[in-house]
User: Fold this.
Amino acid sequence: MSTLTALARAQAFACGRALPIATVRHLHVHDRPLVLVPLAMAGEANAPLAALVGTDRAAPELLVVAQPRNRDQRFAFAAALAERVLAYLDSCIGETEAVAVDRGRDVRHRYVDAPQLWVPNTGGVEFVRLLGRSTRFRSVDGEYPVPPSVPLLGRWLTFFANSAEMPGSSLLLNAVQALGLHWATGQSSVEDAHLAALLAWIEPPAGRTGVEAARDAELQPPAGPATDPDFDNAVLAPLMSVPEPDVAALTAVLREQMTPAWEQVWRSLDLLRALPAGDRVAGRWDGDRDTFSAYVQYLADGGAPQPRRDGAVAAAARLHRLENAAGRYAVQRAFDDPLVMADYRLTGQAFTGRVTLADPDRVDDTGKRPVLRPRIMVATAEPVRVEPGATLTSPARPAQKARVVSLTPTPAGTDVLLELSGGMGRKLVAEPGSVPGVGEDLLLTTLSEAYRPGATFPDPADTPWTHGGPPETAPDLSPSDPGGEDAAGA
Amino acid sequence: MTGGAELARLRGAVPAKRHNARTIAALTGNPGCTRRAVLDAAGVDKPRLAQRIGFPSSFGQSRFALARGNGFEAMLKADGCALLLALLRDTVGLEAPDVGYDDLGSDADDTLAARQARTRELLAGAAGAALIDHPLLTLDVAGQQVFLEPDLIALQVRGRLHVVEIKSFAVVDGQADGAKVSGAAVQAAVYVLALRRLLAELGHDETLVSHDVVLVCPENFSLRPTAVVLDVRKQLATLRRQLTRLASVSGLIAALPPSVRFDLALPPAELIAALDQVAARYAPECLSTCELSVFCRHESAGTTATLGRPVRDALGGIETIDEVLAFAAGTGEPAAEQAEAAALLRTAARLRAEALTR
Assistant:
């Protein structure tokens, strides 16, 4: 928790409504997202009870499992959900665009569109993961056959759940986290997990403070997937504990219980759409489209379902990708949003100052070839926690590097002497405007958007002994006893 | 030691709420909360107290979850624990071919004394491999004797005793919900501690009780059981420290004015006045563990603690939101130890305002 966000929470409490902690939207919001509000049966590992699903706010489809412990009904639910989800995925597959790769020596194609799935909260993401896990290995023949759409759904849900872990990805989003990225409430993050209460802080009804509105909202049914125990005991149990449950009655009570969450997710989408998108959001969505296109291709090539657990090399590579994505996402958000950058200014990793001297034509001819190395002096009153020799960048000129030559304390703060390289054209005279001029206000930071090359990892067959050595057999792609996994629960 | 009379006075004319492993485990969650320690030591019915003063909280458990938990346990214990024994043989190497199984009877208040006596007897003779079902142990918590009912004790695995804890949350691909596992580990640690104290009383070496407990859970999406061994040494250390500190609760109770009473027959205003006399330490995490939390949240409105521990820390540990805002605006008078935090807040406020007006 940064001090700025913490302060925003304190201010939000005092003024009785949530306050922005971002000036732009940091995620992509699809024009036609698929919203899924799942409900699971209490106590079970992953027994779907119901789901509201659809792309039309006015017409959610309610899928209900009258006997969640019954295996056949469970997979009938999976098949019904698969029908909706796969149809939505198909609608995203169509037109492609060519992308230059390998410095323009080659092209590859990616879909112009990609799917975006919304759930109410992190519990919803976990539901997607578990449902993916319980369906992706199902067999279409043998003792307990399921329709082919069920294992396919499992792979896609796993794909979404995995991408939700990737910082900056907008393929699977949850409303609580998405709102929490842009607003600070006057309550704790524990209480923010209740979507209705979080929304109540962002838009309290007229005449009510955020606290009052949130207290009222806490009485609303939870946004799933966990049910309210009182609802279970008083409403669901009497309906479900009979041999032939009255499906119509069950559907009615579940619809009533889940409709608020459905509305809340769409309301969250409205709120987020009202924010202008950050400059780098589209670039990240391009990455999501790449990921989606690649997985479509992988499945078309007959790719196996995601393994139950990654092998050592795959896990290390994935961790590396996640760390890279997290770093890149943090930098991009700061570059897109002055309010996020303010966090770094507070800790001295970024500072603003005014250019007091500039030598834009300075050429360094001490090397083999003369190179353009302009110097500028920036005077700042802010704390500067960088050392001479450090490389800084300015979001206004991301391609340009500024090396700190010296730091001189002054009565008003610090004079920072910088030597610039890059982003000034190919000639020995800088392109006009590419070197900051005297009087320009600049923001400089140690954060860098520079490309970070991927690490190289050994072939799985060369896994070092420190990581368990090479796997003895091919990665286990199937459960130990297909079909039997559910036998005891049936 | 606090006399039972003083505790009874605090509580009023209702029987004391019994502690169990779960409530003891919860005590380790928020050790600084005197209010909880006093109310729990006195055996006050917190849900009813919260209801009475107008701040009810919902701590219901779903019938579905209970049914599944009971079903899973019954399945494991069917036919003289056949399924469980097979599992324990594989995971902890419960070795003997013919393992004795003692069921000490059902979980009811009137069998307490008998079950406790039988547990002692069985453990005193501790020979041969055995499973003890529905054992009853005791532990002193804040000067009060608490009865504890572990799911099972498995005896004699390489000469040591193991606590077996049966839980119905699923372990999927070797992974389970972290919060649930740590909850189970603390509970199991409570049993290990009680068992060790009992063995010491009986003149045995207390290290006979292993710090490795066995957690039995359903595997993946089925009801098929799987067992994992958890090392609860860390939880044991926390628990010991906590119980020692709780012992001082008796001192706190003795120091309370006689007007402080939590008799549910009293009018709500008096109960609230009594609660005001006993300091609480509210944190948002209380909302999921303590029945009185809704009241404490209401009472501590306006403090940085209500925003959560990370927020409070980021605000330099300053007590109230008003103070934070005053420092941020540059109007407050920070004490010497607050000067640094106040300066940071002023900068933060300036940067925030600047970024928002841009």
User: Anything to note?
Assistant: Residues 360 and 374 of chain A are 5 Å apart (CA to CA). Chain A touches chain B through 54 residues (CB under 8 Å). Chain A has two domains: 3-311, 348-445.
